[in-house]
Amino acid sequence: MNLILFGPPAAGKGTQAKRLVENRKMVQLSTGDMLRAAIASGSELGKRVEGVMQRGELVTDEIVIALIEERLPEAEAAGGAIFDGFPRTLAQAEALDRMLEQRGSRIDLVVRLKVDDEQLLKRVAGRFAESGRPDDNPESFSVRLSAYNDQTAPLLPYYQGQKKLVEVDGMGSIEVVAASIDQALDGPR
Ligand code: B4P
């Protein structure tokens, strides 16, 4: 199964993807994690994206599509993947559909985590205090939220049109949200 975890920044996509990896032995493809690993390694790519990410802007489609394409064989071998934080633009969504189609595969389900802005701000402030992730500061977070509203949220009708979109209330505790995601994955579609 190929699943997209969709939602605004700090909605819990990464948190829930990690749980699915543990419980269901699924493969997680997180563009955010891949980009942070590139920065940590000091690679050329890392140097190119560091400022963009710190400001809270989106990295170019070309870069993230290439990162995902590189990892698709791994997803294929595992029988599918959780796409976490990808796609974030229409160009990325169309590229993903094309890349999967070339491999005789497709997206099966898009789970949208619905969380209001006030709750997102609380979560990100909590993580900033704990880990100091540079893009969790209030200024960058407001840029990330605008990027979501302007460039990512318009993907919802794209997946709705494909009848793949399922909405999950992401406001509850991690466990409560996890149970709702399980229901969406295991329930009738
Ligand atoms: P990501 O790494 O994807 O970060 P995110 O959207 O902010 O986080 P996520 O929704 O995964 O939240 P998390 O579980 O961590 O992207 C970072 C940056 O990378 C982007 O801004 C962009 O620059 C770049 N990028 C990545 N992909 C890209 C793409 N495709 N195209 C272009 N650029 C791209 O949860 C957040 C916090 O909330 C955590 O502290 C967690 O513990 C807490 N939490 C989660 N669920 C909770 C719950 N139910 N209750 C209470 N707390 C909860």
UniProtKB/TrEMBL annotation:
Pathway(s) annotated for this protein in UniProt: Purine metabolism; AMP biosynthesis via salvage pathway; AMP from ADP: step 1/1
What is the purpose of this protein? Catalyzes the reversible transfer of the terminal phosphate group between ATP and AMP. Plays an important role in cellular energy homeostasis and in adenine nucleotide metabolism.
Which positions bind ATP?
Answer: A10, A11, G12, K13, G14, T15, R127, G172
Transferase recorded as keyword: yes
GO-annotated molecular function: AMP kinase activity
Name the InterPro entries for this protein: Adenylat/UMP-CMP_kin, Adenylat_kinase_CS, P-loop_NTPase
Can you quote the domain comment? Consists of three domains, a large central CORE domain and two small peripheral domains, NMPbind and LID, which undergo movements during catalysis. The LID domain closes over the site of phosphoryl transfer upon ATP binding. Assembling and dissambling the active center during each catalytic cycle provides an effective means to prevent ATP hydrolysis.
Instruction: Fetch the SUPFAM superfamilies from UniProt.
Output: P-loop containing nucleoside triphosphate hydrolases
Organism placement in taxonomy:
Bacteria, Pseudomonadati, Pseudomonadota, Alphaproteobacteria, Caulobacterales
Its quaternary organisation is: Monomer.
Could you tell me which residues belong to the region NMP?
Answer: 30-59
Reported EC number(s) for this entry are 2.7.4.3
Binding residues for AMP: T31, R36, E57, L58, V59, G85, F86, P87, R88, Q92, R133, R144
Membership in a protein family: Belongs to the adenylate kinase family.
Its annotated compartments are: Cytoplasm
Identify the species of origin.
Phenylobacterium koreense
Listed A to Z, the keywords are: ATP-binding, Cytoplasm, Kinase, Nucleotide biosynthesis, Nucleotide-binding, Transferase
Show the catalytic activity: AMP + ATP = 2 ADP
Q: What is this protein called?
A: Adenylate kinase
